[in-house]
Amino acid sequence: MAATSAATVSIGSTVSFGSKASAISQSKSKPFGMRFNSHHSLRSFSGLKAATSVSCESESSFLGKEGTAALRDSCTAKAVKQNQRSWINLQPQASYKVAVLGAAGGIGQPLALLIKMSPLVSALHLYDIANVKGVAADLSHCNTPSQVLDFTGNAELGNSLKGVDVVVIPAGVPRKPGMTRDDLFNINAGIVKNLIEAVADNCPDAFIHIISNPVNSTVPIAAEVLKQKGVYDPKRLFGVTTLDVVRANTFVAQKKNLKLIDVDVPVVGGHAGITILPLLSKTKPSVSFTDEEVEELTVRIQNAGTEVVEAKAGAGSATLSMAYAAARFVESSLRALDGDGDVYECSYIQSELTELPFFASRIKIGKKGVEAVISSDLQGLTEYEEKALEALKPELKASIEKGLAFANKQTVTA
């Protein structure tokens, strides 16, 4: 190995990679393990995914097999020779500003921590109506590139959004036992409306990630507010449904004893109950399911949120897994903004894929937002999936119309 190239990269822990098919196995103390295979020097590294001359495999990646990237072209490789070995220093070029609106909440805090870890983020703006200064002070001690700034209350909301590239909105009240997503509507709809008005006024070109439930209604609300403000770009408005994909991948891998990093299950429809439709027939790698397994997995994925609510027994809803999923989507957006041409995620967007005006499906994300909708996922469905797709449409349609009605009866300040 005297002639091999190596690199040292730190993302939560430090691991070294040699370019001659060296393998580093995952240990309990490290968040991921990787293997590189290359006949050339390591030219660039994309976080958990290597670029052209290097292949990378992560045992428990943050982004999944096709999305394990964070640095890529934003890393500058500088080779120096030392003791006849060529070493490469990877220097993250953090350049994007991200705002988290609702940063002091149960989702906002772990989400902010995960975003703080991204080497693509230069500034992290944390906004909430109270208690955000402590969160920001705490996060500011983490030795990652981004600068953390806090903003409290409506008077500081506009400043929190100045010059921001990505806005993430987890603000709102969480579900409690016995509460449906629809029960959250009246409170969270008003919160989202107010925040989107501020986004429209201060960073209309930003990618907007809506997490606040019920997403089936809050995304249409956001779209209407942006239209009323004259700044709506449907390619830049995303409902974050990544948690449904994360759950589907996890449950399928467990059920079929598959290597989790290899599993990819597209999830379409919406983000509540039966509107969540995992397309198990489209699972990669290809795997067969019995009718019983399909029904069991589908129902579990649809009700996974309730599973967490009940397990927490009144102490909250799914916050950690939601933060993880949202951070994955943020990282994908940042990679797309940074020029990565291979970014795919499922998201709830304005869509022409069905007769519904909004629909969750797999999309390709680019520098300007949604570049393509992957329509092939809805082709060749099983009979079970076809029936489930038709069954979800009335409920999703009602949720969309409820959001549109709320937005249109409100007065938006120009």
UniProtKB/TrEMBL annotation:
Residue intervals of the Lactate/malate dehydrogenase C-terminal domain: 241-406
EC identifiers of the protein: 1.1.1.37
Annotated coiled-coil segments of the chain: none
UniProt cross-references to Gene3D superfamilies, sorted A to Z: Lactate dehydrogenase/glycoside hydrolase, family 4, C-terminal, NAD(P)-binding Rossmann-like Domain
Catalytic function, reaction form: (S)-malate + NAD(+) = oxaloacetate + NADH + H(+)
Residues of the Lactate/malate dehydrogenase N-terminal domain: 97-239
GO cellular component: a single term: mitochondrion
Family membership noted in the UniProt record: Belongs to the LDH/MDH superfamily. MDH type 1 family.
NCBIfam families named among the record's database cross-references: MDH_euk_gproteo
Protein name per UniProt: malate dehydrogenase
Native source organism of the sequence: Liquidambar formosana
